[in-house]
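User: Hey, quick favor. My workstation is busy. Could you predict this chain's structure for me?
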Amino acid sequence: MPRAEKAGFPTYWTSYGQGPRAALMIHCALADSANWGPLARDLSGALTMTAFDMPGHGRSARWDRRGEVQGVTAGIAADFLGGPTDIIGHSFGATVALRLAVERPELVRSLVLIEPVFFAVARHVTPDTFAAQAAHDAAQSAALRAGEAHRAARAFTETWGDGTPWDDLPESRREQLAEQMHLVEAGADAIYGDAGGMLAPGVLEGTRAPVLIVEGSASPAIIEAVCEGLAARLPRAERAVIMGAAHMAPVTHAPQVAAEILRFLSLI
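Assistant: No problem, here it is.
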């Protein structure tokens, strides 16, 4: 599959499906475009999908800290688009998708936000849940600063992984996750500090695209708070809950997630 500069950053991407609608897919942190495979199979009759590897992930270039990573990634996403497109984002990728809709609304036909980790939204929805998540992530960051990247990666995957125990992961995967934990830290200003200014008064309320917000019933409490807060501010938002799913629902519960996306797209 191709690899070329997008928004000035060496970026790898792949394509899925042969459907009549174009879609762009933005994966979660510490994953890559291949994670979309299970979901893409169930969407392939409806969508022709482009999925790219975010900076520092997969076969894209290493993250060079050239700027704020959410904004850089939104710029890369925009460089793939020639007109209104359905945007599907998962986790950190969902926050990128939302920022793209805010900054380049003319490029976004619809938004699917799966398990968005925009924690700043939860601060005024359920402050105690926000505080608990912030404390958890502070401990994770402290471990990373202390040179204990494996401990930080273990904590991250226990919360946000697909349920595979850390000790059952192949050693090569554990090493990769530990080496990539700095990418999680790079996104903190965006998801905790709202680096893109999306929570300023009137910004989300002005979003014109229809939005589907998807969450798993077994996801961390912070996700429900984020989804509730976003749904309250996005004027054309609806929510869907995938029963029994946790954060990696696009992988572990692909048919159920695909069914919600297809239903949503059929109405717009």
